[in-house]
Amino acid sequence: MFFKDKVIAITGASGTMGRALLAELGKRGARLIALTTSPNVNFADLEQDLSQPIEVIVWKIGQEAELRDRLKEVDILILNHGLNVLAARDSLSIYNSYEVNTFSVFRWVDLIMDIWSTAIASPQKEIWVNTSEAEVNPALSPLYELSKRAIGDLLTLRRLDCPYVIRKLILGPFKSNLNPYGVMSASFVAWAIATLAQLGLHDIIVTINPITFVAYPLKEIGRSLYFRMFSRTNQKSL
Hints:
By secondary structure, the protein is α/β, with parallel strands linked by helices. It is built from six helices and seven strands.
């Protein structure tokens, strides 16, 4: 019953993992909002197996704040959108990678926290972010790794003061348009994410790489301690 009647909004909803999460969480009774940058996307195939329709909201990178009024009822925001430029290393690819994978995600985090604080929301509200195991392992795409590690560290920093649950999704290589090297199925990964979230894990690791299960916790503990020691809370910015 963890997801029953909870309003869950998912960015990157038209992608492989987005659709898999919609299908899995919908089966578990969630009320779904698909946030997509694709204006002509269709979720009719998913809705056939669900008890209620999927609300679709089209948004644009850099215009996250325009959705403020539509997100007041959201209980869980899943930030799943991303960009993988693979081997590119030109300036435009650098800017685009950080804008999509790092800055847009962080704007979403700030936006939903501000919405919830204004509405005096329940502390049971949650933010989930797909940072991927690129936080600690090579992803055969340097700019993807750099931008994902940046948002991963920013989330670790934000966790120190955030009154809501922030879960990181540390996902291994699943087959998708972003990752042609993937070996896991998106449906299995989505099932594992939902199941581990129900168990209360804040760092949800789903991968075939055993190194990640050791490297990520060590990295997260070290970064968290470092941030706690050398940064401080600014109450006005919370």
